[in-house]
Fold this sequence. Notes:
The protein is an alpha/beta fold. It is built from 17 helices and ten strands. It has a six-stranded mixed β-sheet with strand order 3-8-7-6-9-10. The protein has a four-stranded parallel β-sheet with strand order 2-1-4-5. It has helices at about 45-50, 55-75, 80, 100-105, 105-115, 155-165, 180-195, 225-240, 255, 275-290, 305-310, 315-320, 330-335, 350-360, 385-395, 400-410, 420-440; strands spanning about 5-10, 25-30, 40, 90-95, 120-125, 145-150, 170-175, 200-210, 245-250, 295. The chain is about 40% helix and about 15% strand. It has three domains: about 5-40 and about 60-125, no CATH class; about 145-295, HUPs (Rossmann fold, 3-Layer(aba) Sandwich), CATH 3.40.50; about 320-440, no CATH class. It starts with a strand and ends with a helix.
Amino acid sequence: MNATHIILKTHTEDNFSLDLGNVEKAITINLHALDAETLVAEKVFELLKTNQVTLSTAMWDLLKIGLFVYTTDQLVSRRHQGYLSWSRHFICHVPVLKPELWAGNKPIIEKMLSFLTGDFWEFNFRKDNLNVYKPYSPKNPLQITNACLLSGGLDSFIGAIDLLETKEKIAFVSHYKRGGAESKTQNEIVTAFETSYGKNSFKHFQFYVQPMHRKGIEKENSSRGRSFLFICLGLAVAHSFGENVPLIIPENGFISLNVPLTSTRLGSNSTRTTHPFYLNTFQELLTELGILNTLDNPYLYCTKGEMINNCKNLNFFKEHFQKTVSCSHPDVMRLEGDKPNQHCGYCVPCLIRRAALTKNGLRDAYYFKDVLQDAIPANQKRSSDLRAFKLAIQETNSMNQRQLLFHILRSGPLSFLGQSSLEKCVSMYQNGIGEVASFINNT
């Protein structure tokens, strides 16, 4: 597996270069570039400037690295550059304001990103002589108490409702790519919040970041690095209001653990975007960097169905939940001649969503494929997730509590949680499998 060198440059005076042989390749990402050769289009720093946001040096660097990691993840093809068409090797050359601080935390960020994306990450830090940095001076005239990720999915929708019901001021943070469907979904949800809770009850930050695919640059369709960028954006917003403002990451525990449904799903089909080990390691990095804002997923021990049932404004949820999108590939509908940003009905997130809604007597108006009504041939890829769930249900039902504990550890370490929390994870996983089983068996 050959390494790919990725060079980040943040301003035009950065003359850093590498002398490489014929074996290794290098890609340069210029955050300052606005021409046809730019590899990432973003409106992050423009939005921060408009809102007069200031960040500490560590948070400023972390935000740049978030943009860099997401762009890198999208520009190097796993199929062409990855070991067994999956794991890639990145050697990252990144300018930071405090290189000594980051050099001391190389092991943490490398471990965290390797766990998240399934790749091998190496970082080399150098001094960034950026001359536009403004000293950190947090301001919170709106008295924001929490920042919360708002993706447009069902879980973040519930998380937002629960926070708004506290009557405290919330900062919602969204990320969208080009195409319009994501931002449209997010804006529809925000409009519903404004109508019911008032425009002054929250502030919405909507960030555009889109890696660009140029000639000679391979496109990667997976996007595991997006979670890192999303959290970095959320942290930047929380940090700008004060170091005591936490970032809420609403995700049901069943998806957070994302235990592989079968033994063959330990790689590409087993994502770790909000896994407790990933978030715990991220928090460790923040502590070492001197960033005091905390990360919190308050729904780690809840299934999706339980999140719906416990929603603090269930009437509002029932009125607007169909605005949300949980599908892992909603744009595939456009390729099929259907409306984009619809639920396919057969991917893992769609199956979990539908099971959770069914448990609560609800359903979406439309699925491209209704797996209970439209039989998908077993030899089609579209049937693979449903078949995997059926196998997982059989396997889970045959396990005792100890076996289940070791089973959920297949997705990542959890020993830092403690015995009581581990038992909650096992119980939650059983309940999550039970929700899907009830839906599939139509019981």
